[in-house]
Design a protein that fits this description.
35% of the residues lie in helices and 19% in strands. By secondary structure, it is an alpha/beta fold. It has two domains: 6-172, Rossmann fold (3-Layer(aba) Sandwich); 181-348, Glycogen Phosphorylase B (Rossmann fold, 3-Layer(aba) Sandwich). An eight-stranded mixed β-sheet has the order 3-4-2-1-5-6-7-8. α4 runs antiparallel to α5 (126-139) and α12 packs across α14. The longest helix has 15 residues, at 340-354. The mean pLDDT is 91.
Length: 366
């Protein structure tokens, strides 16, 4: 393993960006290769005008480069690599100019993360969607490539999309390390109970995530406004708290209506999840969502939270039989409860994830 030259094409994980779902996956994958010498290339065509490099770990060197300014330096690192691990089609754009020069035995690993062209199209970015589609098509036709999918639904989608191609794929729904432990701090949890004024018979609704279009944030806030009650507490966790506070103010929601907005690190989340009965995940029935594996879903299930859904078809969860509540069935007289079924499903998912021979697949050992 140590003899393999691995180059990761990805943003560099840091304290500032670790709340982002993509970065959490980058970091989790990186932890699997702690014993390997590896290089990180955080590349951009327009940004990174000031170059950056640091050996931030014993076996890891990180570079932040502008592609045009450091083309020769980037070229040398890529053509010398045995394995190039690309985090998402968004990052794949940054190596397209170098692809023709890769040595024949170099393995290109694409970690799909999501269906990027379809996400851009959903956001009405038609030109960007076209560019992503072209890049994705090129990557999916590289002879020595392998593909990492986050769900079986995603694997099936790409098998159909690139029918006729010999796709070597692996489903690996890797999860943040905080999922595999109980990070409850009793004092912190009791402090939250007091802060949010949560009584024994109160119902706690939670949202965890950012504010992308497919999250249906406005629909969630409209729903909350209709449900305001002394017995209901709404805890909204996001990496974009200022923007969410602005949205709640615009429709007349505040802490007086028991709506609380926080931004916390992944390792603090358990204290909040342990309080919640129901969790919003309002995804539409479109491919962006049906192949996805939202981190918040497995986090909800781990803590017995019952997802409130617009569509129940999110990733592989419906096939696994998770317990959920349709948004249209949400009633004012709802009672507080947890789901033991969801806890068991989360436990099963994490056990299966641990048994995947991921490193062997990446290193071409089977």
């Amino acid at each position: 393993m140590k003899n393999k030259k691995i180059v990761f094409i990805a943003p560099i994980p840091s304290k500032e960006n670790i709340k982002d779902g993509m970065i959490q996956r980058v970091s989790a994958i990186d932890n699997l290769f702690n014993n390997c010498d590896r290089i990180y290339l955080d590349l951009s065509y327009s940004n990174n005008l000031n170059s950056y490099s640091v050996r931030d770990m014993k076996n890891r060197i990180c570079y932040r480069y502008n592609i045009f300014l450091k083309y020769r330096r980037i070229f040398k690192m890529l053509v010398a690599a045995d394995i190039i691990y690309v985090h998402s089609v968004m990052s794949a754009i940054n190596i397209i100019l170098f692809l023709p020069f890769f040595k024949k035995k170099c393995k290109v690993i694409l970690d799909c993360h999501g269906v990027v062209p379809e996400e851009a199209l959903f956001q009405k970015k038609k030109f960007l969607s076209f560019i992503f589609s072209v890049v994705e098509g090129i990557i999916f036709k590289i002879e020595n490539s392998r593909y990492i999918y986050v769900t079986n639904a995603m694997k099936n989608y790409y098998d159909v999309k690139y029918k006729g191609s010999d796709l070597k794929g692996l489903v690996y729904p890797i999860y943040p390390s905080n999922l595999f432990s109980d990070n409850i701090n009793v004092d912190k949890r009791n402090g939250l109970l007091s802060l949010f004024k949560i009584e024994e018979n109160d119902v706690v609704f939670l949202y965890s995530g950012n504010l992308q279009e497919w999250q249906n944030i406005d629909l969630m806030l409209d729903t909350i406004k209709k449900m305001v009650s002394p017995r209901y507490k709404f805890i909204l966790l996001t990496g974009q708290p200022d923007l969410l506070k602005k949205k709640t103010m615009q429709i007349g929601l505040s802490e007086e209506e028991n709506v609380f907005i926080e931004s916390v690190s992944p390792y603090e989340l358990d204290n909040y999840y342990s309080l919640a009965n129901f969790g919003f995940i309002l995804r539409d029935d479109i491919v962006v969502n049906t192949v996805a594996n939202p981190t918040k879903m497995i986090e909800y299930l781990k803590w017995g939270i019952i997802p409130i859904v617009k569509s129940s078809k999110v990733g592989d969860f419906k096939d696994l039989g998770y317990e959920y509540l349709y948004l249209r069935d949400l009633k004012i007289n709802i009672a507080p409860r947890k789901s033991n079924l969801n806890k068991e499903i989360a436990k099963k998912i994490m056990e299966l994830s641990n048994n995947v021979e991921f490193e062997k697949f990446v290193l071409n050992e089977y």
